[in-house]
Amino acid sequence: MSELFFGPIATWFTVPAVLGTLFFSLRTALMFVGGADGGADADVDFDVDVDADLDADAGDSSEAFKVLSLQSIAAFMMGFGWGGLGGLKGMGWSPVMSTAVGVASGVGMLWLLGTMLKAVYRLQSSGNISIAQTLEVEGRVYAAIPARGEGKGRVRLVIDDHERFYKAITEGDALPSRERVRVVSINEDNSVTVTRA
Predict the structure, then answer these.
(1) Count of domains for the chain
(2) Which residue stretches of 43-186 are H helix?
(3) Lowest mean pLDDT among 19-28, 146-155, 179-188
(4) Cβ(26)–Cβ(70) under 8 Å?
(5) Do 145 and 75 belong together in one domain?
């Protein structure tokens, strides 16, 4: 058994495989329990500040993936080690061919990690909606709006799949609840002016 993992050439694949797997598993487990410190004063987050943009047309710097973080180095080491060891001992390939397979496996693990992190990033949403986004949006009166600016009611608008309520006035006739309306302007007090849709 020790010859399988610690033979003359196998050690070059076993050490990175074991170290990468242990570190990657530890970081993943700590992320699931809510942080790297586990209630202690230690901090396990050691990212190297080198950014590379994996998506060339993404104009937002937050879309960048940190290629040289310890998590990605561990993923590469894990892929390289297990891929190379599988080629060397499992398939009986030469050390050069096993190294090439190990490098390809490591790059594959980096790609997989990057794809998963981008997918997780896309799940994030701030939920902030600017009142400027309400212009020309149609919605329904939630609380009746008095006629000609004599008071304020409330309207319900759906913006970017988020339901929002805004104080509203109208310059025309009174608008009862459930009336379909359209926002025509935004007022200085962060209320909106609406008209029948």
Answers:
(1) 2
(2) 70-85, 95-123
(3) 19-28
(4) no
(5) no
Q: What's the pTM?
A: 0.50
| Shared domain check, 161 and 85 | no
pLDDT tens for 31-61 read: 778 754 444 433 434 343 334 344 444 444 3
Quick one: what percent of the chain has pLDDT higher than 90? 57
Tell me the mean pLDDT in the region 118-135: 83
3-state secondary structure of 157: strand
Element (H, E) at 89: none
Distances in whole angstroms, Cα of residue 129 to Cα of each of 21, 42, 125, 189, 191: 42, 37, 11, 16, 14
* 154 neighbors 167 (Cβ within 8 angstroms): yes
Is residue 42 within a helix (H) or strand (E), and if so which, with residue range?
A: none
Beta partners for residue 168, in sequence order: 153, 192
Query: What is the structure's pLDDT at 35?
Result: 55
Query: What radius of gyration, in Å, describes the C-alpha atoms of the chain?
Result: 29
Token pair 């949006």: residue: 137
CB-based contact 156:180 (threshold 8 Å): no
Three-class secondary structure of residue 39 per DSSP: coil
The CATH number for 155's domain is: 2.40.50.140
Question: Residues 6 or more apart from 71 whose CB is under 8 A from it?
Answer: 24, 27, 47, 113
